[in-house]
Amino acid sequence: MAVAPETRTLPWAWYTDPAVLRLERDRVFRRAWQYAGRTDQVAETGAFFTCDLGGIPIVVVRDREGDLRAFLNVCRHRGSLVCEGEGRRETLQCPYHAWTYDLDGSLRAAPRADREPGFDRDALGLVPAAVETWGPFVFVNPDADAPPLAETLGDLPQLVADAGLDVDSLRFLRRSSSEYDANWKVCVENYLECYHCQVAHPSFSKVVDVSKDAYVLQESRWFSSQYGPVKERWSGAFDPTGEIARGQFHFVWPNLTINVMPGHANLSLGPVVPTGPERTARFLDYFVGPDVDETWIEEMLAFDDQVGVEDTALVERVQKGMRAGVVPHGHLLLEAERLIAHFQSLLVDALS
Ligand code: FES
Ligand SMILES: [Fe+2]
Which residues, including other chains, have CB under 8 Å from residue 119's CB and lie 6 or more apart? Predict the structure, then answer.
């Protein structure tokens, strides 16, 4: 894809303005496929989990026919969230006035509604969302009429398979959650370049070759990829040698990061979720191959956590500079930061 010859970043006011965040919720998060959780969380009938898709509350549930369903997690009565957290239920009952929805979303019972002439129970089911899976990963699009997930993922599943990873054989390890005093786009843009790696991630840069000739950046229509080979003379506490020769760091529009570290079968993924104009929540679900050594896993996780700590400081520092409101925008390097340019052009398209 051609890179726009624009070196200007988005206006920095877009990183603090609540009106921009509302627009992003309506024009980006309301109509995009987003990572929601895992199939193991909804393996049995009645098993459900909730999630926040950029400000849009969603509940995912396994219905009685064994189908996966997703709904806006908003009660049709007076707007309470219907479900919280995760668990297993016979029905989805709202805790406010006990309107009770079946696992297929239909309204089964509403106390005292039989005394209301004209109460149209059939019209008051939970609003459906679209749900699909890729291996063990559950994706939801709040727009029930969205085009299929495959259109967004493109050949990404193939690229991951080509790296030697069979996503269906992965075992879930843990979820780690974090929050940032930064706009969600600062977090995404920080993920989309490794221009800062040499400077800001010393331990990562001793293991992964982040030099401009070795570290590969590739844009596709709805996702972009970074490939970092292991350094010829790597050093550190984490052994990156194994079946997976290169680190892969994919970003799927609008907010999903997928990481594969070099070494043994591993993958982590999770969304970058705005919780306020200057506040972001993230989680990463970590998976490993069935036979990966526990010590190696611990070392890889420690290595990854260190990068995370460094990135937190970076993004919060950026937010402070932007928030001051004294400089209107920044400048991108169109080679080293071309994945940011790609992201920013998708965002401008979505908002306009
Ligand atoms: S808001 Fe859900 S039952 Fe009243
Ligand atoms: Fe980083």
Answer: 110, 113
Mean pLDDT, residues 178-192:
98
For residue 92 and ligand 1, the question of a CB distance below 6 A is answered with: no
Cα dihedral angle (74, 77, 78, 79), rounded to 10 degrees? 0
* Cβ atoms of residues 41 and 283 within 8 Å: no
280-332, pLDDT tens digit by residue? 999 999 999 999 999 999 999 999 999 999 999 999 999 999 999 999 999 99
- Mean per-residue pLDDT, 115-141: 97
Cβ atoms 193, 340 nearer than 8 A? yes
Residue 86, burial from CB neighbour count under 10 angstroms (0-12, 13-18, 19+): middle
Q: What is this structure's pTM?
A: 0.96
Quote the pLDDT of residue 3.
43
195 C-alpha to ligand 2 centroid (Å) = 9
- The verdict on the CB of residue 78 being under 6 Å from ligand 1 is yes
Q: What is the mean pLDDT of the chain?
A: 96
Report CA(32)–ligand 2 centroid distance (Å): 25
Q: Are 10 and 344 in contact (CB under 8 A)?
A: yes
pLDDT in tens, 256-294: 999 999 999 999 999 999 999 999 999 999 999 999 999
178: its two tokens: 């974090």
> Ligand 1 test: best mutation among 72, 78, 91, most atoms within 8 Å of CB?
78
- Choosing from 97, 100, 101, 127 the residue with most ligand 1 atoms within 8 A of its CB, the one to mutate for a pocket test is 97
| Side chain identity, residue 139 | F
